[in-house]
Amino acid sequence: MLNFDSALSDSLKLGNTTSFWVLKLYYNDDTDATNYIGVSEIDRLDGSDFYHGIVSSWGSYQQSLDFFNFSTRTGNMSVKLINVDRSILGGRFSDLFSTKNFANRKWELFQNTSQTSTYDTSARMIAQGVIAGDISYNVKNVGFTLLDLSEKHHKQLPTSIVDSDTYPNAPEKNINKPIPMTYGDFHDQTGIGTIPTSGGQFDRYFTKSHFPAIVTDEWSSSDQNVQAKPDSVAIHRLDSKNIYTYSDDYFSACSDANTTENESTPLITYKGGVWRAYIQLFDYDGYDFPNVIDGKFNTNETLSSSGSYDYIYLGIPKIPKLGTLIDIKAMLSYGNFNGSSNIWTIGTSTNLTWGNDNSSESVSLLAEYTSDQEESWDFEGSTFIALQDNVGTSDVEINQVGIEISFKPDKMVMKKIKEQYEIPLSSVFAGGIPLDASEGLPRIVLKTRTRTLTYPSEIDVIYFSGTGRKYGSWINSRSSTYSDSDYIENPIYIIEDMIRTELGLTSLDTDMFDDSGDYNNGHIGDIYDDAVRDIKFAMSQYKFINSKDFIEKLGQQCFSWVYLSGDGNFKIRTLRRSGDYSSADKTIDFSIINLDNISRTQLGAVRNDITINYNYNYGQDQNLSHINTSDGTSQGTGVGGIQEEFKLELDADSIIDETTATQLADAYLTILKDRKEIIDFTCLTPRYNDLEIGDIINFSNWDSNISIYGSAMGGYWMITEISKSIKSTKIKVIKVST
């Protein structure tokens, strides 16, 4: 909601007030506050400011939001000026064009009344933007089209590229390609116990994800290494153990003896040719030892021996030939050991003497294979782990077993980018899906899908695991509990960082961003039905995308609308669950409005079977995991059902966390499983011109004879469309709370 001053707000409530607008049309250098022509519908003098009375007609200022797509739009506004001889400064307005260029300059519109003065204060600004270049006129009128600030503020992301001046040794194919934007935690997996960091160094492999870093120096002669950028600004954490190449569905780690990392630059490097791939084993030939191949270190299988051997059998899959073999090792994580004398046997010939409790080992199995098998990478089959105690009784817990292949790659594989520029599909989903009787209702809808805008290209990348961008110092003075030492995984602040860091803008309504994202009580926690700290986003934006599309893609995954307010600030509004609303931004007096229409959202907007695809693999370019949930009541034949199954499939490529994906699915089902009530009304005065899209209202003095589909008026409603004029306001609202 706009923050009108009390004098303006109070005067707009008066029945006999005269409402008017004044408009500033800037020209030439529009950063000079004096370079403007002021206009209104009659001559108006406000101190030293003069507004020429040459406006013959005002258009309306319109905002709208798509409730189901989490997108917003501000309509173009038109204004027509009188252009007859001697109408302004002794001539026609069009005569000014010889010395004053208005095209692509800013405009500012202010709401006023006959009871107010000082017309152009920020507390009376109702809209601003950029003047369109197609200014047309005749001998009677000049027509201006007034655009919002979207085209001026939004730009291509990421804004940093691999340019040849800064990176003269970059591969030619990488020139003018984007340097990624990296957010969230994609380092060590959590919830699987303590990951061993020595002996068998499982921490090389048990990470949440692998994000791309673009090569900016294919061989630094001074440092004798290859250099790559994971981001253009400082990030929270890099790990020299977690630098990878990708080939044949394997992320292979480089030896940390040959890697370096620098978070502040940020930069990662590698040299040498030894890489290691981790191979997941499987149950072999009817043997069942799931706890040692489940990817967890807090579950185990126990071997016990009292004289004879006890075995665990496991299968080794077919492993693609990744390069020249150096070694093949078994990696073992142990739990507790009890006993005195024992021998481990791995495979058929490799013996180990038991070491400490809760340790890990990496043991070569190369002697198990012939030179021909090594040459052809013929390792598939089985291996076993055995324990024997010939003296007494021993037992040991086995937490996890895997195979590590060390090799020299024949070549570093290039990354094939399928989409050089990422754009959303325009028709994937909308609340107002057009209904075609010949086709019926769409049974399956896909969201957040993109398509190729340009031809495929190839770039050289390596991969890494870590934690992404940190908060800027802008967060320290806020009430959100975060600090500039934290990495950003809260999607509300990912959006804010993008606006600040990539767009270079500071005009944000920080109170609204904190209302949505605050660590303790942000509204995102309401819609997710989860603690804000447990909502975890992690992503790399490594393809070009328009910043507005980027915001709306994230908005679909955090139930938020981001829009440019009439006061020039970026604002955000996050949807909450029905029971979470307890107050309104403004109460609408039914006695002073005209009720235009009562309706419901279209049947085609209902979705009662939700699938969330998440855990994006940047090597395979696809999501690897999914969550599904459905609602039987919505699909049923009762009064609340539509006796149909309508599916929604959403690609949440910003989420790798299962809990977050699960709550996202539940939230979408809650929103979409039922039709929602809509009210259109008109206020015949501009009393509510301080309202904007996303604002929450309720009603007073409602006519008790008018029910809402059989129920009494009540609850809270969100503004989805608003059209403001000098004398009236048209508003559409959707019910968000009972």
Topology:
Elements: H1 6-12, E1 19-26, E2 36-40, E3 44-46, E4 49-53, E5 55-58, E6 61-66, E7 71-74, E8 77-82, E9 106-113, E10 125-131, E11 136-137, E12 141-147, H2 150-153, E13 156-157, E14 181-183, E15 211-220, E16 225-229, E17 235-247, E18 250-254, E19 259-262, E20 267-270, E21 275-280, E22 282-283, E23 301-305, E24 310-316, E25 323-338, E26 343-346, E27 350-352, E28 360-364, H3 371-376, E29 381-388, E30 394-409, E31 415-417, E32 421-424, E33 444-447, E34 450-452, E35 457-459, E36 461-469, H4 491-502, H5 510-517, H6 523-528, E37 539-541, E38 544-546, H7 547-558, E39 560-564, E40 570-574, E41 586-589, E42 593-600, E43 609-617, E44 622-630, H8 632-635, E45 647-651, H9 658-672, E46 677-683, E47 696-700, E48 716-724, E49 729-737
Parallel strand pairs: 2-4, 32-38, 33-45, 41-47, 43-45
Antiparallel strand pairs: 1-2, 1-9, 3-4, 5-8, 6-7, 6-48, 8-12, 9-10, 10-12, 11-12, 13-38, 14-37, 15-16, 15-36, 16-20, 17-18, 17-36, 18-21, 19-20, 21-30, 22-24, 23-30, 24-29, 25-28, 25-30, 26-27, 26-29, 31-35, 32-34, 39-40, 42-46, 43-44, 46-49, 47-48, 48-49
Helix pairs in contact: 4-5, 4-7
